[in-house]
Amino acid sequence: MNIMTEKSLDDAVNAEMNARTNEIIKMRGDKVTVHYGEKQALFGVDLDVRQNQVTALIGPSGCGKSTFLRCLNRMNDTIDAARVGGKITLDSEDIYDPKIDVVELRARVGMVFQKPNPFPKSIYENVAYGPRIHGLAKNKAELDVIVEKSLQKAALWNEAKDRLNEPGTGLSGGQQQRLCIARAIAVSPEVILMDEPCSALDPIATAKVEELIDELRENYTIVIVTHSMQQAARVSQRTAMFHLGYLVEEGPTDKMFTNPDDKRTQDYITGRFG
Amino acid sequence: MTDISLDTLTASAARPRRDIGLKKRYAAERRFRLYGVLAIAIGLAFLAVMLTSIVSKGYTAFWQTTVTLPINFDEKIIDPSNKRATDPNVLITANYPKLAEQALIEKLGIDPNNKADVRKLKGFLSDSSRVQLRAIVAADPSVIGTTRNVDILAAANLDSAFKGQIDLDVPESRRKVSDQQVEWMNKLKAEGVMAEHFNTGLFSYGASSRPETSGVGVALIGSFYMMVIVLLLALPIGVAASIYLEEFAKKSRFTDLIEVNINNLAAVPSIVFGLLGLAVFINFLGLPRSASFVGGLVLTLMTLPTIIIATRAALAAVPPSIRSAALGLGASKMQMVFQHILPLAAPGILTGTIIGLARALGETAPLLLIGMVAFVADYPKTPFDPATALPVQIYMWANEAERAFVERMSGAIIILLIFLMAMNIVAIVLRRRFERRW
């Protein structure tokens, strides 16, 4: 009886905490512009990413949603011709500030890519790589724990626990993508960016990854780029619609899919263009 | 119902077939295949001709004729005045070939007083008996006064005659072995005294004016030193340069210029590198002439562009997704390169390096200019001692007229080809084994 009340009390506290944290803005884009050489890819995007929520970025191909996503952990830095303007903050800190170290930023803002890209190493090594380079484990035992927890969180532990030393590239496409998610989780990021994580997967694997995304929301803030309207509707709490480099509109997913303000959003989600 | 379906069937059968040029297209394809097969056949034919010519001329170089003689280490010939206890020079300057000659006279049953016959014996045994017998005596002076069986090398002409390379139908005055010598040779052969053995000397002897005692020993050591130097210098420098250019340097006019220059350097004739080596390493830096160290430096310069081009290609072939994965996890650029890109590019780098080394191993022209085309009889103890290289040894033997040298030249070519083939096979095996697919 005593335990029961404590548990329900905990739940209540958690629920309240969640309600409050929902309003915390984890990352904020302020008039973000991106140029690839002469070509401008993003035009003054203002977008907030809320903590412990899934924010979906939708829009037709070439609309700048992936470009925006790649600004959030400065992956655009690797492209020589890319220039980023405006301001992006993580916990109110400007991530393009010279004082911010890009390596540290990427440890805080992890990324999962469109095509599953496990390292051609063992499953264990794939997950252990991040914690190892960041020195998150003091010894092998700690590392083992991190690997196991990450694989569990990525819902891959049961399938992978007996074959940790087999190459990660030997897994199926869906398993590889979950391995990549486990690898991203292993460094305990605050935000996970996902760039069309299911576009190379079959419907069953997609369902598994989507389920996983929903679970991960509890501990992480997630930004996901997707071409699938249904996916955005299923997994996200907020949706942002991009078109031709502009942010068309942004709001709670329910509202975006039922009663969008902008006609372009309406047309896009009903399949009239894009 | 059936009528209708029949109708439609016949209608579709009757529909005129369009001429879409299928015949022509297939003919063109067949022609192209034929050209391809012809091209390969021509290439293979040339290769076959070259290999048969080399092997047929050269395989005999791996056998050497020796005469097994009971040598009586006669004190009267070695030390006639019995002074060896006080004067060690006696044992060095003694007339050892005389011992071999006497043993041969005895074996053939010639009258030692028949001066004409004894004179004909000259040129039957190799003069190397002097060195060989002296070594036996030096190792164990107590051998003096006893008799012992020793394998003495036959002289080069007799060796050629024994292998059947001298046409005995040519009049005696126009060939290098006399009828009498042939008769003795056949007699010794019948007795089993004169026989062919595997020619280990080919691998151990250095340069010599006598074909039977010349070999590729010095050249092998010289080539080995050079390969080690090339590997130690060209691989790290080449890989470091490639990694910097491919992964770290920002693309600019300057890097474009460097890239063009590297590609040009790969096409520069090797003799130009030889001239550079002569001017810089020998004349300016004062490094020793004919040394394998300088040869190694020159070949390093020559191999560098090859290694850089191969390494850059291997680095560029690593999929960008691996780079993104590493960077996305927060790996620094250095960690990305050394923990992910380099291991994946290693098979390609190794293959390129081995092919570069193989090219360097077969290079002759630059070595001629830095003086590695010398008559070197002693083993080079360090890379700074005078040495030759395998291809240069081939070049030097190609300049000799004697049949036995031609044979050795072909033998050396076979040795060089075997090394090159082994290196290329290693390159292929490495590539097969470590190649990864994505």
UniProtKB/TrEMBL annotation, chain A:
Residues covered by the ABC transporter domain: 27-269
Highest taxon listed in the record's lineage: Bacteria
Entry-linked Pfam families: ABC_tran
Keywords: ATP-binding, Nucleotide-binding, Phosphate transport, Transport
PROSITE patterns in UniProt: ABC_TRANSPORTER_1, ABC_TRANSPORTER_2
PANTHER family: ABC TRANSPORTER I FAMILY MEMBER 17
Protein name, entry field: Phosphate transport system ATP-binding protein
Organism whose genome encodes this protein: Aminobacter ciceronei
Lineage: Bacteria, Pseudomonadati, Pseudomonadota, Alphaproteobacteria, Hyphomicrobiales
From TrEMBL, chain B:
Domain ABC transmembrane type-1: 220-427
Transmembrane segments: 32-55, 224-245, 265-287, 293-315, 336-358, 409-430
Gene3D superfamilies: MetI-like (1.10.3720.10)
Principal location listed in the UniProt entry: membrane
Pfam families referenced in this protein's UniProt entry, alphabetically: BPD_transp_1, DUF3333
Domain of life: Bacteria
Keywords of the record: Cell membrane, Membrane, Transmembrane, Transmembrane helix, Transport
Membrane topology: Multi-pass membrane protein
Localization per record: Cell inner membrane; Cell membrane
Keyword ATP-binding (UniProt): no
CDD domains per the UniProt record, alphabetical: TM_PBP2
Family note: Belongs to the binding-protein-dependent transport system permease family. CysTW subfamily.
Protein name according to UniProt: Phosphate transport system permease protein PstA
